[in-house]
Amino acid sequence: MASRYDLRSAQDLDTSYASLPGTSGTSVTENSTPLKARILNQNLGGCHPSRWIYELLHNNFTVCDVFGRLRKTELNTPYPWEHPHRLMINGNQSYSTNSTRVLSSVCVDCHFHFVFKMSWDERHSQESCNPQQEQWPPSDARFPWHHLVWVGQESQPSPLVKIDNRQRNKYYPLVAREPFACSAGPCTFSVTLEISEPRMTREWIDLLLDHDTIRKNVRRAKEQDPDRYAAATDDWALQAPLNLNTYLKNLLEATSQENARSISKRNKRFFVLFGTRCFEMFRQLEFEETVDVAEDGVDGGTFTPPIPPRSDNPSGATDLGTYRAYIEDVRSEVQCIIHRGGQPAELCTPGLHADLGCAEVPNVDSVLVNITRYEIMGVLPNQPKEVVVNAYKRQWEMIPDKRKALIDALMSIGNDLNDEQLNEYAVTQSSIFESQVQSQTNGDDGGLTNQALLFFELQPLNDYKAQSIVQAFRRKVAQDPSCANTARNMLMLISQASTDDNYTAELVMEYGEGFSLPTAKEILGLSDASGFGPDTLDDVKEKIRNAKDKDAKTTYLEAMEKIAEHTNSTGLKSTVSELREMHGIAVPDGSSATGASAQAANFDLPVGLENIGNTCYLNSLLQYLFTVKPVRDVVINYDKFKLELTDEKIKERLLGGNKMQLDRGEAVVAQAFVQELSDLFNNLEQSDKVATRPSQRLANAVLLSTGTLLKETKSSAEVTTESQPPPLPTRPPPGPPAKENNDVEMITVTANDSRDPVDTASTVSSQTLVEEDSDRSYDKVETSPTTTEDQVIDTVMEVGQDEDVVKISRTSDRPMEISEAVEKPKNGTSQDIESTDVNMRDVEEPETVDQKVLTALEHQKRSSGTDQQDVEEVMGSIINRLQAAIRPSSVDESTGIQFEEIMKTFFVTTINYTKKFDDKTYQKEISFDRSITAFPAPKGSCSLYEALGRNFDQEIIEEDKLSRYTAIKTLPPVLHVLIQRSQSMGSKNGNPVLIPEILYLDRYMDAPHESLTFRKRVESWATASRISDIKASKAAVGSTIPTGPILESIGQEEDAKGSIAAVTEDSEMTDGVKIVEEDWSFDGTVDDDYLLVGRPSVNSVTSAGLPSWPKDIKDTETAIREKMDSELRDKEEALENYYSKLKSNPYRLHAVICHRGQLMSGHYWVWIYDFEQDVWRKYNDSNVEVKRSTDEVLNTLSTSGEPYFLCYVRDEDKETYVDVPRRRRPAPPSDTSFENLDADGDFTVTNSEPLKTSESPQELPPAYSEQNSD
């Protein structure tokens, strides 16, 4: 063996050896894909790509059973397929893009087709496995080679191997589709193998290779017409495949049906090589046949091929499953026949190895390949130690129950290779493993942890990741639902043995509070389902009915309850209750908790906000505004800012840069909103629960316009003048009358309930009913009945992985009859009912505007369905309410614009410049906005700067002959950026925007047009535009195959024409001037050979008059591509240098509001950064989570289309304007004294942190509860 010098010390080597896979503490990025996510749901190993290709070519995958299934299937096999396959490229069906690669091939020997569809996430392409990451000693953080794992194994038959009947047609007779994914953490690579049957039948092949019959035809033809067949020889008997190949080649090269070349049945070669015995083959190839029987009885008709349209694939490749692809497939099989006749074939397996990032292993011993140690490791004999250890690390994660066998295999392979370093590594791994198993067994009460691992079919020792343990738990419970309680106990044992808090927390979440959502879905068989509809419900009921014992039934019901809780489905909750009653299964103790507000809190986390009816977007904004000091100051110390509700003050108040007139209704609603917000802010600081509940009154004040509130009040007033009060379909029937009221009639009223079932359901969307002496909508909450006898509700619930609000669509509703008790006097009439029922109508004074809007605020009239308001609109509504509630602090004398704390905090001043092409100066328009807008790229990702550039940079409008741009005149301390994801036709732009932690806004600031700053900005616009053009050109070029080699090869063929011909054919010119032997271009005579539909004119230009074929096309193309790359690098470097100097206006990211779903429905949450504690928190309604890595959060936000509303704060002012208030902790009981008690003897709430005080908006106090707010 060749020696290798290693400059690392022995101590370094020992350190790298002395840790089992995944235990070195090295951080590894995990990038998931839908296929890759399924790896965790199974316990199957994978293999190195070289072995994967070897197993494929030899029909023997170690794990995937595709070949076993094919052996049991009746296949169209003109040749035996149980042999090592030799694959060659098939047709024009292979291509590459930035995120995909398709390789279409056919086996030379059996004609089976193998298509390899490779894909990866373009955003993470730099993190894909790469041989350049190879190193020794090995590292957990390096991934040199893919490790391919079959992901078709499921608890149910995989939909990926169910072949649609449409796919089993003549064009694409698919028999198997098997997906494989790379298991390396950062890698997103996957390959899907598609196998299809040969297109040519055995009968066709026999016709082409029936040499004896063809020789007889030649001899017979020479006897009957010796002059015509003078040039025919017995060699023609071997040329049927060659001729058919040429027919198909010309079909594929034809550009239109007018240029289609028909084959004359009387053609000499066609007549003897094919003749009537092959007519059916051409019919199956869909050639159009004409029949013209002459007097001699010979058919003189034609076969004309249909010309398939060119593919619209950007790469120019042929689409699979089309007629064109079918003809290419048949032609490739014909070429396989030719190659087997002696012409060598160029195999594509080297290219396949390159596509999979591996090297072909020569001279593989077929006996050694199937030895257990190589099968379990997933490698081939004689592969280098780096490959072996890479596979060992991947298999360690994939088949944790076989880790001891993996170490044994590692040691055996080391002996096979006689590699000293690999042997040393293997021995070290074995020693560590054995010692840890022994240590664990001796240290935990007789090996309880090991017993728990074995229960989950995991081999000791426990160095598994928490997620691996959780997956094993889910598999166990899904396979045997009756053991759920035992499985929870085993999970608890494993968690208690760990000293890692995060590890323990992940396991506790699985057994502490019932099943998690992913576990519930796996138990119910919903792991890959997108919805929970009637069919799914029937399947689950069937599982419960067939469950072997009560414990299994209980497991299914608890899983259903989790789905019902996640979807807020009253119908599903009711179904679970009915099933419990039907099977005699009681509700477990403690499962009836009313929600997050009833749970004790972690005082280190902020308080969450409960969703009160599709208000996740409002909750996100409220949590964010709670961290903005000027907003808190206005809300908590409202009396200092309050606008007097006199007609004079209201008339004088003008809002915003447009100086909008304030009316009284707006002012009243605004003050009510601030009062409600003040109560909420106090609750967020003082609550001892996980979450608090915003009042419905607050939500109505934000989400309903004043006009709507007044309109609703008017409608209510009109209702009271009717003869009888109308039924209230949302209220339950009243209870039985008191004994003394004997004259009570039950009036049956039919009403259509137009609400979504979720609105009638839970406290999330409940109707609020206010008692007469109450002034708060949350004093009493009365929920509607979950079911009614005459109401049928059919729902389909979208069940997601995360705790999102999901869309629930109702497919049918029937009118609901409600019995309403109406008290009736003994001798009264209906009119009497009115006079006694409504006793407050004695005074007919009209309500004031104040009374009307305040009354309307008490009743929820807004929709609680899935339609949502835009976050920016809701933010605008909140800001407008806050402005309308306070008086101005100053007035600009020149413009009359009134400023107050809200406007000073949020509003940005922009100038829109417009100039016609012929004008010298710009026209400008100044506006005050609460946010600036960024537009994501139409395709792919872009930076936030690029997205803002689409708003601020210069735009040339050719049709109007003008240019325009926008600049920022003044910036507020807190800047909002709206990522405008709304598109035409109501769709959402989900392309990622790369969000920076620090945003520099200098490039968008206003500058005089004659200044150097502006001139440089104009240059930057031109440079950015050029960069955009180059990238567009590169994208267009990158999606097509280089044409240079193709054109040059065609030119060489043209030059060589006439001198080389594999098969010649005699034919006559139509003018009788010259007789030539016909060739494969089918330019024969009309009456005897191939017919050219739309024949060229006899006056066409001769070859001598044609211009010479262009030279050096390939070199020219390469030079142009290199020039584009060079110019792009130069332009980007110049632009980056320009931007690097513009950093005098830094803003730091403080919060990001995110949205998942469609444009008008989905779920919102918010990330907020705590500058003091240096952590990010995710506020998701009631749940609050903590993330400490800014890089991780920004990477998450920058790789999806979820970020929607960005909140930045001026870097130098961040401590002044934002902070995250600390939750007040109750005083410990040991410190109780009479001074700590209030007048009622209750404990007072004290703050555990020193108070911050200030007198100005620049130093707003976070400990605001200590201030007076009354």
TrEMBL record:
It catalyses: Thiol-dependent hydrolysis of ester, thioester, amide, peptide and isopeptide bonds formed by the C-terminal Gly of ubiquitin (a 76-residue protein attached to proteins as an intracellular targeting signal). It is an enzyme of class 3 (hydrolase). Residues 713-788, 1221-1270 are annotated as: Disordered. Residues 724-737 have a biased composition (Pro residues). PROSITE patterns: USP_1, USP_2, USP_3. Residues 760-769, 1244-1257 have a biased composition (Polar residues). Keywords: Hydrolase, Protease, Thiol protease, Ubl conjugation pathway. GO terms for molecular function: cysteine-type deubiquitinase activity; proteasome binding. It comes from the Eukaryota. InterPro entries: Papain-like_cys_pep_sf, Peptidase_C19_UCH, UBP14-like, UCH_repeat_domain, USP, USP_CS. Its EC number is 3.4.19.12. Pfam families: RPT, UCH. Residues 607-1211 form the USP domain. GO terms for biological process: proteasome-mediated ubiquitin-dependent protein catabolic process; protein deubiquitination; regulation of proteasomal protein catabolic process. SUPFAM superfamilies: Cysteine proteinases. PANTHER family: UBIQUITIN CARBOXYL-TERMINAL HYDROLASE (PTHR43982), UBIQUITIN CARBOXYL-TERMINAL HYDROLASE 2-RELATED (PTHR43982:SF6). This is ubiquitinyl hydrolase 1.
